[in-house]
Input
Amino acid sequence: MKDYKPPFTITNEILSYVSSISEKVGRITATTNLESKPHLRKNNRIKSIHSSLRIEANSLSLGQVRDVINGKTVLGEQKEIQEVKNAYAAYEKLSEIDPFSIQDLKVFHGIMTKYLLDESGEFRRGEEGVFNGDQCIFMAPPAKFVHQLMDDLFGWLNASKATIHPLILSSVFHYEFVFIHPFSDGNGRMARLWHTAILSKWKPVFEYIPIESQIEKFQEDYYNAIAKCHIDGESTAFIVFTLSQIDKILDDISVQLSEDSEQLSEYVKRLLDAMEYDIPYSSLALMEKLGLKSKEGFRRNYLHPAIELNLIRMTIPDKPNSRNQRYVKV
Output
């Protein structure tokens, strides 16, 4: 359809959220260099992956997802473990995505569903519905229309990227994508990944803001907003929902960054600088690296504060005093 335009209404509430989010993003970008906080970036990326998969009924815990990403053996369904590996591979290439390219969409669907789907990287050839658990929310458009609908959507996306604010553009795309349901599986994961990709092209800080974790907290509202849009015949309600969640997660990120700056003592900074990621160290090995003699001083000033801030984890958390205990930078 030539010059297709998805139906939505820009309300005062939407404009208020756009203003609020823009201000918060500007403040975070101006006052914080996330490049200097790899532990926060990695933790937030793991949260994004865990939450996006959990919305799709993946049962692995946050800790298990972290272990899979860190290359550790995890007891669980092979399909769920592969979903984590695939999602991590996709999110690690987030900065390489051209969100305005339909070809990139197929390539990244191929990454997201590798070894899991016969139609990986290809639009569906069968009929599909959108489900919330066992409940079918609606039946997706017939497969024979998918190619044209996606061409129309990307045509609008490219035609509008210079005139519609990225916060609104990404939300409209997310809803329209879910409505079309272009793939036989992985549509929710791809919609959330692409939403983040569009926002990251606007402000790179969105690469490390776990919008998915906020959506997971309000998963029922997420599905309700989608259902309301199906009834209304436009995506306005979904735009309001996504912007409200982004506005909330930015508040959380601001607090997180503030606490990180305030609570990271010089002792903890020294400890983190001495450790490599994902390598287990004994307390003795860490003391030697830091040139320390007092075990009590090391635990009080270095180790325990880092553990409390979730910057270091124990390999045997249920036995903190085990002689085999090791500590890993996360």
User: Anything to note?
Assistant: The chain has two domains: 12-261, 264-329. The longest strand covers residues 135-139. The CA atoms of residues 14 and 302 lie 46 Å apart. Residues 264-329 form one domain.
